[in-house]
Structure formats: C-alpha cells, structure tokens
Design a protein that fits this description.
- The protein is an alpha/beta fold and 179 residues long.
- It is built from four helices and eight strands, in the order βαβαββαβββαβ.
- It has a single domain, classed as Rossmann fold (3-Layer(aba) Sandwich).
- The protein has a five-stranded parallel sheet, sandwiched between helices.
- α1 packs across α2.
- It is globular and about 45 Å long.
- It binds uracil (URA).
- Uracil (URA) binds next to β7.
- This is Pyrimidine operon attenuation protein / uracil phosphoribosyltransferase.
Length: 179
C-alpha cells in the first residue's frame, strides 16, 4: 500500500475558511438555512465549518443536524454483513429551509442520492445544496455535483481518498491511498 498527501493541515484550514465564506455569501444570517452532516464521514467537517461560522463571524444562530443514510443506500440489501445504522439528529424543521448537505468526499454520488431520499422523511426543503471537502472528479455514477467544493481530485478506482481530522486521527490531512 502506498499513500501520498493531497492536503496538509494548513491547506485544509484555508479551504475550510473559504468554504465558510462561500456559505456566508449565499446564506447571509442562516435564519432560513440549516447544515446537515451526512453520517458518518461528513460529521467532523460539519462541526469544523459550524465552529468557523460561529467563532469568526457575527452568526449567532445556526441549525446543525446529522443524517444517516444506511437504509436509504441502493446497495444496502447487497451487504452480507449486519448493517448498523448511525444516528440521525434533526431537531429543527427542514420544511421550506435551505438545506446544505455536508460530506467529506464526493465520489459516485450514490450517498447523496440516498441523502436526497432520506431527507424527505423530515419535510420538503426549499432548496438543497451540497458541500464537499474533496470532489473526486470523473467518478460519478449519477448526475450529482457539489455546490461548494474544497479541492478537486483526480483519482482512479483502486485509489481511495482518506480524510483525517485532528479530533479523531490527531492530524488534519487528506491522503490518496493506493492498494
Ligand atoms: O475515495 C473515497 C471515496 C469515497 N469515500 C471516501 O472516503 N474516499
């Protein structure tokens, strides 16, 4: 196995700040907007962006939730393992809100398709956008694109993009891993 660093901590920091600024530009005071992290890997990115939005701006109101996709995935019946769902926590109304889905890596688009189905159980948002730290270009199986992209990466199918967060892995870094 070999791995190469795609992003160091400093670059991730710059990207997170840029993504937060883009969100502010489009969503102003966030009164009509909520951030929803996709389980499991979008959660840390969601926390980090929410932290930047709260600490470094005047925003004092931010609705942040988590959405689990396990049983909405189109391949969940194919799994021979027992699936364990993560939690969904959406303790606010999504009806007529601008929802921003947040995930770390956009790859085939199938997770986002599942998220679009899952969110329907909570109401009918006014709009849904997608923010991703890494956009794996040319890998999509579905016509899905991110609204906000941290970094575009060209990776082939036997490569994997791994995102490390300091709260979990003791470092902020993004790696391209080849088996
Ligand atoms: O490369 C990939 C693809 C999907 N999810 C990841 O975390 N990495």
């Amino acid at each position: 196995m070999s791995q190469k660093v795609l992003l160091h901590a400093k670059e991730i920091d710059i990207i997170l700040n840029r993504l937060a600024c883009q969100l502010i530009e489009n969503h102003k005071d966030f009164k009509e907007t909520c951030l929803i992290g996709l389980q499991p890997r979008g959660i840390q990115l969601t926390h980090r962006l929410a932290e930047i939005l709260k600490l470094e701006t005047e925003i004092d109101f931010l609705e942040v939730g988590k959405l689990d996709l396990t049983f909405y995935r189109d391949d969940f019946r194919r799994s021979d393992k027992t699936l364990t769902a993560n939690t969904t926590e959406i303790d606010f109304i999504v009806e007529n809100k601008n929802v921003v889905f947040i995930d770390d890596v956009l790859y085939t688009g199938r997770s986002i398709r599942a998220a679009l189905t899952a969110i329907q159980s909570y109401g009918r948002p006014k709009s849904i956008e997608l923010l991703t730290l890494i956009d794996r270009r040319f890998s999509r199986h579905l016509p899905i694109q991110a609204t906000y992209k941290g970094r575009k990466v060209d990776a082939i199918d036997d490569e994997k993009v791994k995102v490390h967060w300091k709260e979990i892995h003791d470092e902020d870094a993004v790696y391209l891993v080849k088996n």
